[in-house]
Amino acid sequence: MPKFTPEELAVLRQYVTNPESNVFAVKGLTGIIGPAYARYSRAQGSFLETFLKEFVKEGQLDALKAKDAIERILIAYGDDSVGELEGAHLSMEQVSNLATKEVEDRRIGGSPIEQSTRYVVYDQKNEQGQWRYLRPKEIMESPVKELYERTMDELFETYAGLVEPMQAYYCTLKPREDARYDILGTGTKQARTEMKDEKDIKAFDRTYKADIRTKTCDAIRILLPAATLTNVGIFGNGRFFQHLLSHLYTHPLAEMRDTAVKAHEALDHVIPTFVKRAKKNEFLATTRLQMQLLADEFLQGITPDPSTHVTLLTHEKTDFYTLTLAQMLYPYSMHSLSHLYSFIAKLPDTAKERIMATYVGERETRRDRPDRALEAGYPLTFDIIGDFGIYRDLQRHRMLTQQRQLLNPHLGFEDNTDIALAGFQDRVDAIREKIEKLYNATKGACGNTVAQYTVLMGHRMRWTMGMNLREAEHLFELRTTPQGHPTYRKICQIMTKEVLAHYPWAHELLKFVDHDDYQWARADSEANQRRKERKLDTE
Questions:
Q1: Domain residue ranges of the chain, discontinuous segments joined by +
Q2: Which of 71, 88, 198, 253 is the least crowded, having the fewest Cβ atoms under 10 Å away?
Q3: Three-state SS at 346
Q4: How distant, in Å, are the alpha carbons of 99, 334, 407, 496 from that of 449?
């Protein structure tokens, strides 16, 4: 261990947890820690010695000296790799659900957490008396402005009007006096009348309230549109944020570009060096436009095929080249992956070469990298139809490749059985029909990319998921736990059956997939939370 003077130790204690130990955590060095770690990877001495030498002057962290050191280190080491050693926390608040999907698609190097539709009820207006949905610039400057606001207002009024009636409905299905929860941690569920301690009674009531509330949220979220305002917090490294900003700058929607400007400004205050190269990617903007034109040309007049909710394409039965071309066309179409695969397999070689050349584009440097279709070739590739709400939950998985098609109402709507049994299906049908008319009007006035804002979480969409068996094990077992949303539990149960039908030897690997159905998905989870709180109170 190096020896430091008392004065040096005093400086170091401001920035590391214990400068006299060989294991310590660094603190308070955002914007500097990345270059400092990179520098000491090639230094003869320790991190602490390198830090004192390169970044400290006369006992103080010297901004000018640090800036000079950072610039020299980035030139020598490359700012991409150094950027992975630097991180920041960023909040994006009151952005649309559509925007959060674009953010969460940047799946490497970032960890997002988003406001949950399972716990938050969107039945309150803001301080200006407006419902919480985005009013996109493109729509507000179009002829459908008034229709959009009028229909969205009615939609949120319908949603808000179902909150109390659906809670009342669930209370009739599960009256408080009949409810049972393992609040005490005894392994058996107790009724409220069995609670003796006042704290336990309150814990029971909190659990019951949360049980009914989450059940209500799960049912009525089908009416929330992609324009619903939400909050997302992200921790990411510098490389992640640079790619995220570039992606948002390149996006055709004004909300994404405006968010990029604000996020860039915020990150300039904490990790400026690592986001300075973020800008619109002209290469991708051009190739995406050309791919859309090509897909429209090739698929004109071809009706999308009706298909099942889950289709598994395995690598033994697919040609890698053809599958890659199908993945290239996929996000620019409304067709299933299987349909595109069959279509492309019959094309002449010149047409196939044209798809490849258009997708790859005019690369001028190694940084001109084509999109995610080049990740095709996983042993398990699923083509999925599920509602937008399901996608929001399953999109978060990062050990895989996902591509989605533009949101639209043409694949139908996933009605909720409980709403129908409670007697409110007519309300859902009435507003859904108005929303679908709004979608068509918005598409005509602003295009199908902008029209996505009007699509509801209950509308079905199509996306692909490519994965290996390890990710399949993680995804299926996690997303079929009892507390999971019933709709994505069903999708993952079907995905599991598809895998086992092709590869029965994988049965033992997927043995913790839960194939049962549960009426009260969150009840045990909420009770478990009370047990944890109870344990904390007694410690």
A1: 6-85
A2: 198
A3: coil
A4: 12, 13, 8, 33
Name the residue among 121, 76, 213, 142 with its Cα closest to residue 454.
142
Q: Which residue has the tokens 């978060």?
A: 396
Tens digits of pLDDT across the chain (539 residues): 678 999 999 999 999 999 999 899 988 887 777 777 777 767 777 888 888 887 888 888 877 767 776 677 665 655 567 778 888 999 999 999 999 999 999 888 999 999 988 888 999 999 999 999 999 999 999 999 999 999 999 999 999 999 999 999 999 999 999 999 998 888 899 999 998 889 889 999 999 999 999 999 999 999 999 999 999 999 999 999 999 999 999 999 999 999 999 999 999 998 888 898 899 999 999 999 999 999 999 999 998 887 778 999 987 788 999 999 999 999 999 999 999 999 999 999 999 999 999 999 999 998 899 999 999 989 999 999 999 999 998 998 888 999 999 999 999 999 999 999 999 999 999 999 999 999 999 999 999 999 999 999 999 999 999 999 999 999 999 999 988 888 899 999 999 999 999 999 999 999 999 999 888 766 777 777 777 776 666 65
CA quadruple 303, 306, 311, 315: dihedral, nearest 10? -30
Give the whole-angstrom CA distance, residue 216 versus residue 528.
20
